[in-house]
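User: Could you check the structure of this?
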Amino acid sequence: MRKIKLTREERMIEDSLEHFVPVDKQEYEQIVNAIAARKKDAVLNIRVNSHDLANIKHKAQQLGIRYQTFISEVIHRIAQTS
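Assistant: Sure, the predicted structure tokens are below.
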């Protein structure tokens, strides 16, 4: 049999499948609803201070996420508070 060389991304996917845990229908529905609630369906263009943006990018990098995702998460958390 011929050995197939996987890319790094393909190996990560294959490794994650080893930890797959089946869920019941109710938990699946909760997951689907949570994903749908976080769907981004609007575009926002804003102007910010370049120093603030640099700080935001630095904090996002420390967290290991993209800065747009970080900004979106901050906005989401503020929007959820009463």
